[in-house]
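Quarterly update from the structural biology core.
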Amino acid sequence: MVRKYLVTENEFLSATVDAADGHLRFTRDNGQVVDAGKVSGDVTPEALAAATAAETAAQQAGAARDQAQQIALGNAYAALGAVFKVQATPPAAATENGLPVLWIDTTEQLVPTPALPPSPSWNDTLSRFTVPTGVIGVDYVWTSGGGGVGATLTPGATLSTTGTYPRTVTITPVAKPGYVLASGVRPFVHDFYDPNVLTVLTSDGFSGGASSSIIGRSLDLALGGSAASWSGDDLWQINASAQLEKKAGLAGIGRIVLAGGLIASNYRVEFDVVSISGEGQFGTAAGLVVGIRNQSGSPYQFELSIGGRGAGSSRLFCGGVETTLSNQTSNVGHWVLQKVGTTITITGPNGTPQVVDKSDASLIPGVSSKELWVRVTQTAMGVTVDNLKLTKVGA
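Predicted structure, tokenized:
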């Protein structure tokens, strides 16, 4: 038996209790039937009216919420200039409310985009590093060493390390959703050495009187260090002012090779340029080149070229890569060339350091024995140097 009750003051026109299953059902004015569940006992018209009112209020609240969502979604679509349909089947129409319909197929398998993140830029002189900017699809996470473990790093941030030396810092690239690290990408691991621990290896103030040749000459250790001697091309002399001077009238590249066997990974070379004048081969300006090479004339690790293209034309050469030192405007004065890890720092006569990061792998790895080279560009003359000192950096 079905008992039917009319409810005229609400959206639901009638309510019935079906004797077959004991369920209370509301019938809307559009014919929709809402099952309110099983009831027991007699249901009075007043109870049905109250239940109907509550159900109607819930339905109306849901409709209002849905309407608000539709309005907000419509406004968003209007701002984007398209309607997005995220579904498994193609949209029924190409336009909706005057906007083109864009279909996002939920059955399509998305293929992650490979990401190739560059290395952080390491500054070994200041024991800090800089996070790359403009990298899409990758976060950089500081995973070990140096004090900031666990942090996801902000692009462009420059971060200092802490702790005892050497500090081994690991920065791990992590792919964002929709991306995958390209083949071969590994965590970036870098060792920081203490740049304030300095040990003079050898030095020469070129004292002891003028000499027409320095080949085989023992360094005077005027600035500290241990015994060493000069070898190489016999194109240099010591003048009356106790300075190293390129001989006049001799062709060829004058090269002085400090005896090898210098066992260190990080170096500082200091010297004074007294003068650079005259011309080199083919009419080019004279230039002085100082640097560290692997022993037996193999490729240099790094070289500083002063002059050679006129005043303020100094350049750093590393593994065949040339870097112009834009902030060095003078050739004459005190120079400091330092390599710590993959950072090379050049400080010229103006006292302003220029840091060159060579973590791009252009820095040729060193071997157990190295040589300090002092030479001139082409057949340059009028080059005079004083107070040369070679120092080991780090413990």
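Confidence is low (pLDDT under 50) at residues 1-12.
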